[in-house]
């Protein structure tokens, strides 16, 4: 299955996409109930924008909902922002617009909401459901991406749900690093890559699309929800032949590949345990702790990954890790230089777009 | 909306609907005076805003900012290379050269930022701040995009806008004595042009990304003849009417030409 981006954005083509994914007959009832329940589930949920438009409502009822939702968003003002650096009302209003985009089949009609109008529009969720969803967004601080079941990341639209980390824009850069590296070295392009702690599959999928049909990616995670969601996303982008999803802790699912990996990328949990309680509510209350908590200083997983990289990468192999910031980046490079001396070379510390030193990259030293 | 509030920059060129924009700030481009250290290409000191004289520094490219109108400004980019040392930068430094760069090369000349971040970012944060601002360091031109939900797509749109702005704003000097239209300009001319050979292929229209290069060269010529469409038409082997129609076929081109004409006290093309 080849997906063009265009088709991902064109609602009329969605049913086509759905067909190619095996969905149980009970999907409809499953979706509707699961949409409102922030419980984690092993079954991948269909993002709102991919659901069939089987509901309908009048433009004036839709408008009523929208006005209510907007005033709820406005009432937030900057209170979330002040308490935990959460979203302010203007951001929430932007999300409201996106929610409408995902929920209404033909959003050119949305502009006509202003007029008193009995015209019916087809919807992917019942209006009552929209009331619930928006309440969850504001009152429970449920992340917008869980509300709509997807996140736009690079040129992808990835399904996400409770139990899986929502991929961050910062992480998009890692795919650029890989793209740079393989454009200079065809051999790396044809090799086996690993994305450890793949979550929604974001990095693995991003990288597979760079490698193309010659490449191979193994994406692993400890979390079963992550495995289910990543598999769904891989399937939806037609990359089954390139990426393999494996369950297990870090390098354990890679047995037998010692010294064979062309590349290794990871965005492992890196937040120091003591900082977890102070996180923005959307993150701290709703995203899985196993995806965030990096131990006392946040480096548990990162150090483990460095150790493993020395074993698993082939000579000339590339690695890229995301970290908590400057301190982590420096500590990692120190660790690799001192404790793994000679194993790695050409370290780089690269800032994210906000200017925070975020990534460490480098190569496995050539064998002597 | 949030980005406007947060950035509070009056300089940012917002081109949400670039082609049909008629906002008064549309042509108000900043000319940043860049310190040479913040500048990707070492060769681009930009004179202060009020300067209308051309100054030559120890490099081969200079910019002259012409205050054509209170709020209108263009950036001149000309090349007088004499020294060998300039060769590398020349290729990239030419106004037209910018447009010939690949996306990656052009991006490398830019500073990209997202919204000012407060706090540690990364896994700590869920704010969907996907707006992107690209500042092209050699020219100071800024393009931004925020309408999409992914940063990656916003970056791509910002880059497309940057290319259009470069074509519109960066002028190359033209030697009218020895003028012969460059290939990329010939390609956007209608087939009836008497100087357009059949080897130019079919006419390239405004929707084609290659149109920008031709548009830039056309604007260079029109600036050289100080806005006279009939003069420019002669150089292109076209009737005045045919050239007017070409200019009117693209909104941003039309606006740039009319702005120049207005500054010279000429009537706008309609
Ligand atoms: C910060 S998230 C990153 C997810 C994804 N790569 C991304 O960038 O969006 C960290 C991921 O590591 C996974 N993880 C945590 N401990 C793990 C372990 N011991 N082995 C494998 N994966 C683990 C979590 O389940 C989570 O999906």
TrEMBL record, chain A:
<dbReference type="GO" id="GO:0032259">
    <property type="term" value="P:methylation"/>
</dbReference>
<keyword id="KW-0808">Transferase</keyword>
<dbReference type="GO" id="GO:0008276">
    <property type="term" value="F:protein methyltransferase activity"/>
</dbReference>
<dbReference type="InterPro" id="IPR002052">
    <property type="entry name" value="DNA_methylase_N6_adenine_CS"/>
</dbReference>
<dbReference type="GO" id="GO:0003676">
    <property type="term" value="F:nucleic acid binding"/>
</dbReference>
<dbReference type="GO" id="GO:0008757">
    <property type="term" value="F:S-adenosylmethionine-dependent methyltransferase activity"/>
</dbReference>
<dbReference type="Pfam" id="PF05175">
    <property type="entry name" value="MTS"/>
</dbReference>
<dbReference type="InterPro" id="IPR004556">
    <property type="entry name" value="HemK-like"/>
</dbReference>
<dbReference type="InterPro" id="IPR029063">
    <property type="entry name" value="SAM-dependent_MTases_sf"/>
</dbReference>
<keyword id="KW-0489">Methyltransferase</keyword>
<protein>
    <submittedName>
        <fullName>Release factor glutamine methyltransferase</fullName>
    </submittedName>
</protein>
<dbReference type="InterPro" id="IPR007848">
    <property type="entry name" value="Small_mtfrase_dom"/>
</dbReference>
<feature type="domain" description="Methyltransferase small">
    <location>
        <begin position="189"/>
        <end position="273"/>
    </location>
</feature>
<keyword id="KW-0949">S-adenosyl-L-methionine</keyword>
<dbReference type="InterPro" id="IPR052663">
    <property type="entry name" value="RF_glutamine_MTase_cyano"/>
</dbReference>
Automatic annotation (TrEMBL), chain B:
<dbReference type="InterPro" id="IPR000352">
    <property type="entry name" value="Pep_chain_release_fac_I"/>
</dbReference>
<dbReference type="InterPro" id="IPR050057">
    <property type="entry name" value="Prokaryotic/Mito_RF"/>
</dbReference>
<dbReference type="Pfam" id="PF00472">
    <property type="entry name" value="RF-1"/>
</dbReference>
<dbReference type="GO" id="GO:0009507">
    <property type="term" value="C:chloroplast"/>
</dbReference>
<feature type="domain" description="Prokaryotic-type class I peptide chain release factors">
    <location>
        <begin position="109"/>
        <end position="168"/>
    </location>
</feature>
<comment type="similarity">
    <text>Belongs to the prokaryotic/mitochondrial release factor family.</text>
</comment>
<dbReference type="GO" id="GO:0003747">
    <property type="term" value="F:translation release factor activity"/>
</dbReference>
<protein>
    <submittedName>
        <fullName>Peptide chain release factor 1</fullName>
    </submittedName>
</protein>
<dbReference type="InterPro" id="IPR045853">
    <property type="entry name" value="Pep_chain_release_fac_I_sf"/>
</dbReference>
């Amino acid at each position: 299955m080849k997906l063009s981006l265009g088709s991902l954005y064109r609602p009329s083509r969605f049913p086509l996409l759905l067909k190619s994914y095996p969905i149980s007959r009970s999907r409809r009832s499953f979706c509707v109930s699961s949409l409102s329940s922030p419980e984690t589930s092993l079954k991948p949920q269909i993002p709102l924008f991919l659901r069939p438009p089987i509901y309908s409502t009048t433009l004036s009822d839709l408008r009523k909902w929208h006005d209510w939702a907007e005033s709820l968003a406005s009432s937030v003002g900057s209170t979330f922002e002040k308490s935990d650096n959460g979203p302010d009302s203007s951001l929430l209003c932007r999300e409201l617009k996106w929610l409408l985009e995902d929920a209404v089949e033909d959003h050119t009609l949305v502009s006509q909401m202003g007029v008193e109008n009995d015209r019916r529009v087809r919807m992917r969720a019942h209006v009552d459901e929209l009331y619930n969803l928006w309440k969850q967004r504001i009152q429970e601080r449920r992340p917008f991406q869980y509300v709509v079941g997807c996140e736009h990341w690079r040129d992808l639209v990835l399904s996400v749900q409770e139990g899986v980390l929502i991929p961050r824009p910062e992480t998009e850069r890692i795919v650029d690093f890989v793209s740079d590296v393989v454009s200079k070295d065809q051999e790396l392009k044809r090799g086996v890559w690993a994305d450890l702690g793949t979550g929604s599959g974001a990095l693995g999928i991003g990288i597979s699309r760079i490698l193309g049909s010659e490449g191979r990616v193994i994406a692993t995670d400890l979390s079963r929800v992550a495995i289910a969601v990543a598999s769904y996303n891989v399937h939806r982008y037609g990359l089954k032949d390139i990426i393999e999803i494996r369950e297990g802790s870090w390098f354990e699912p890679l047995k037998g590949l010692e010294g064979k990996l062309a590349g290794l990328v990871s965005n492992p949990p890196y937040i120091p345990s003591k900082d977890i309680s102070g996180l923005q509510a959307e993150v701290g209350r709703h995203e899985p702790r196993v995806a965030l908590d990096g131990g006392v200083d946040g480096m548990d997983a990162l150090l483990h990954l460095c150790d493993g990289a020395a074993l698993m990468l082939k000579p000339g192999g590339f690695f890229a890790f995301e970290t908590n910031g400057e301190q982590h980046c420096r500590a990692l490079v120190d660790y690799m230089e001192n404790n793994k001396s000679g194993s790695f070379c050409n370290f780089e510390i690269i800032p994210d777009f906000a200017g925070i030193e975020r990534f460490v990259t480098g190569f496995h030293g050539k064998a002597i | 909306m949030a980005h406007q509030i947060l950035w509070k920059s009056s300089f940012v060129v917002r081109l949400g609907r670039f082609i049909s924009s008629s906002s008064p700030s549309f042509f108000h481009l900043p000319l940043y005076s860049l310190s040479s250290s913040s500048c990707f290409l070492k060769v681009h000191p930009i004179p202060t805003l009020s300067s209308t004289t051309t100054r030559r520094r120890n490099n081969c490219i200079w910019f002259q900012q012409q205050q054509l109108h209170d709020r209108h400004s263009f950036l001149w980019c000309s090349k007088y290379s004499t020294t060998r040392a300039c060769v590398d930068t020349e290729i990239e430094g030419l106004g037209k050269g910018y447009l010939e760069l690949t996306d990656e090369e052009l991006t490398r000349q830019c500073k990209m930022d997202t919204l000012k971040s407060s706090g540690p970012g990364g896994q700590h944060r869920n704010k969907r701040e996907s707006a992107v601002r690209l500042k092209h360091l050699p020219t100071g031109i800024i393009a931004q995009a925020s309408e999409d939900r992914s940063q990656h797509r916003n970056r791509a749109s910002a880059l497309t806008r940057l290319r259009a702005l470069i074509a519109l704003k960066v002028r190359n000097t033209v030697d009218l004595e020895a003028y012969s239209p460059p290939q990329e300009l010939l390609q956007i001319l209608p087939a009836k042009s008497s100087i357009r050979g059949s080897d130019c292929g079919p006419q390239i229209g405004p929707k084609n990304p290659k149109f920008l290069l031709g548009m830039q060269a056309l604007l260079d010529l029109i600036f050289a003849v100080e806005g006279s469409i009939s003069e420019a038409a002669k150089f292109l082997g076209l009737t005045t009417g045919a050239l007017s129609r070409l200019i009117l076929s693209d909104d941003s081109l039309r606006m740039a030409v009319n702005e120049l004409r207005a500054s010279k006290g000429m009537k706008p093309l309609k």
